[in-house]
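SAMPLE LOG
Freezer: B-3
Tube label: C17
Construct: single chain, 152 aa
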Amino acid sequence: MPEAALTNPHTQSERQHWLGLLARSAPEQLAQLAADLPQPQLLRAPEIGAVMVQGRIGTTGAAFNLGEMTVTRCSVRLADAVGHAMVQGRDRQHALRAATLDALLQTADAPRIHHEVLAPLAAAEARDRQQRAGKAAATKVDFFTLVRGEDA
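STRUCTURE (predicted):
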């Protein structure tokens, strides 16, 4: 087992959380929040490809292929950390920034990155989710049945 894996204080679920947050973020917002990133060594330059997206009917249904989605992936190395990213679409800079931030989040800079980048991204995502839920709630229709006299 690599030594870095033994000394990494982050759990798998924490890393999954920040990788998802970076991937779902708006590229413009991520560029604004992470404007002064160090120059990483490219292990895998940003490359565009496709992945098959699977779906399920309900939570117990069998998986089926829903279709393909365009993604961009990237892997970088900073000093003693390796960062990876896969983002939806064809934005090479978004993938590079996300991979660089993933590497930084595995170093001593993690608290600063959490405060300066992840917290604003999480707040924006929560705000967007709440707005979408509000729009959906406005279209909700409640059906009810009236008891008519002849049915009694």
